[in-house]
Amino acid sequence: MNEYLFLFILFLTGIAASFINMVAAGGSFLTLGWMMLWGVDPSMANGTNRIGVIFGTGSGMMAYRSEKLKDFKQSLYFALCAIPGAIIGSYYSIKMDDELFKQVLAVIMILVLITMFLPKSVLTPAEGKVRKSIFIYPAMFAIGFYGGFIQVGVGFILIAALRFLTDYTLLQVNMHKVSTVFLYTLPAVAVFGISGEINWKFALVMSAGNALGAWLSVKIAVKKGEGFIKIMLGVAMVIMAVKFLLT
């Protein structure tokens, strides 16, 4: 395979990855897998993927804003707790060993899948102001660490935290997930960049696909509502949970 064909497929993979990430999580498996199949060092692929994450989540944020879905102030609070963890996690990602993380993540995905299909009254009070447990903020620090460390599948953990510790709808959860990941990824990219762990040519080609896929995904998710998100999220979580538990 020549490099031009590789780059074209990387662009398409970026579209698919962001489409998945906006309504579920785990899209980075596609981009990381394709880069490593081409022979990119795992650490370099991990760093390069973060540029695509920034473009994808940035495009997703703009798409949500265009649909009048925004709460940037609250997302910023979440991100401010996640950023220190992301910096620490990205620093240690050079010596990454994610086997234990994979097993824990598989359990989390199954739990999230179960809670998504419980009646809303089981998870949340009826009406009124959105509840936010104080535990959501330390949870964001831990999520930031994981996101900085490996990023892959962090959306599942964010969804779990926001579903268990707040009363946001799935659409609101995804909106905050996208904004929070965008903000904490910025300093993580600085760490990878300083360490020379970013292939900028691959990153920019992939990022173009990420931006397009994110925009399309948000537009479809807003129109289709929570049912579409549940289906996409459920399928993604089952596939990855099985993969993690069997490998």
Main attributes?
247 residues; globular; 11 helices; mainly alpha
Mean pLDDT: 82
| Topology order in helix (H) and strand (E) letters | HHHHHHHHHHH
Number of strands: 0
SSE-based structural type: mainly alpha
Low-confidence stretches: 120-129
- What is the global morphology? globular
- Note the total helix count: 11
Main sheet attributes: strand count, strand direction, barrel closure: none
First-last Cα distance: 29 Å
| Rg of Cα set | 17 Å
Beta-strand content estimate: under 5%
Percent of residues in helices comes to: over 70%
Overview of this protein structure:
The chain is an all-alpha fold. The chain is built from eleven helices and no strands. It has helices at 3-23, 28-38, 42-66, 72-92, 99-116, 120-123, 136-149, 154-165, 170-194, 200-224, 226-246. Helix 4 packs across helix 7, helix 4 (72-92) packs parallel to helix 9 and helix 5 (99-116) runs antiparallel to helix 11. The longest helix has 25 residues, at 42-66. The protein starts with a helix and ends with a helix. Residues 120-129 have low confidence and may be disordered.
